[in-house]
């Protein structure tokens, strides 16, 4: 019997060492160690059991955090509407941030059938935080990224106060779809203006002094305003949620003419802005180039 006991003890010791080392990489080898009886295995088993308990706690958390809802875009949807209907914390900006690679550079250009993930990326940092101490770093990086985005936005839409008599049609916006971008969704075969991405309710301003030629419903353009300026050019502002001017009214540079929205044929709130040689569709010219020629910095 003593010989047999001496024979089993080294085995238990070797098994303990193996499990103790393997325990640092995962809890899968806990069962063989627990199966090895004897007081000699009690302390390592407790250590592995403790590690197993921690792993079991992290796994459900990761599963819960990783759970996300997939939403298929329907006709008439836009990101703000989806965020409200699906109760997405962070609103349309959160949806756009999590699905930017699928949506593209313009959050207003979503199409029916597009699959959007709701909530996955918001939960991801929570899953990694308990398992890795370094997971705290992404949390610290987010405010810096937010500051960078804010600075970028301010730079992109800053108007130069040079007394030229012209200004941007909207403040605090980024450019979405640029002028002349080709696409079958536009009847002309290309984008006839420049889109400024802003949430509904943002103040829309006349870029210069002029006379309101039309103000009202414009079909696919939704609520729109067209203004004639002193140089004979016309500026158009579309998809507005409300109008503050009427036809025949004179306006000054920077005067509010309405609020941004998502009326007409759109997939999300933004300002569609055009410069035309006549008040009618089809006479468009590059709006960004026009603003720059009048001393306004855009993008």
The CATH architecture of the largest domain can be named as: Distorted Sandwich
CATH class of the largest domain: Mainly Beta
Q: What is the CA–CA distance across the termini?
A: 87 Å
Low-confidence stretches: 1-5, 10-63, 121-162
Stated plainly, the CATH topology of the largest domain is called Glucose Permease (Domain IIA)
How many domains is the backbone divided into? 3
Specify the helix fraction band.
25-40%
What is the percentage of strand-forming residues? 15-25%
The name of the CATH superfamily of the largest domain reads Glucose Permease (Domain IIA)
Give the H and E element order.
Answer: HHHEHHHEHHEEEEEEEEEEEH
Helix segment tally? 9
Mean pLDDT: 72
Shape: elongated
Could you give a short account of the major beta sheet?
8 strands, antiparallel
Radius of gyration: 30 Å
Return the structural class: alpha+beta
Task: Please give the number of β-strands.
Answer: 13
Which key features would you list for this structure?
single chain, 299 residues, Membrane-bound Lytic Murein Transglycosylase D, Chain A, 3 domains, eight-stranded antiparallel β-sheet, three-stranded antiparallel β-sheet, 9 helices
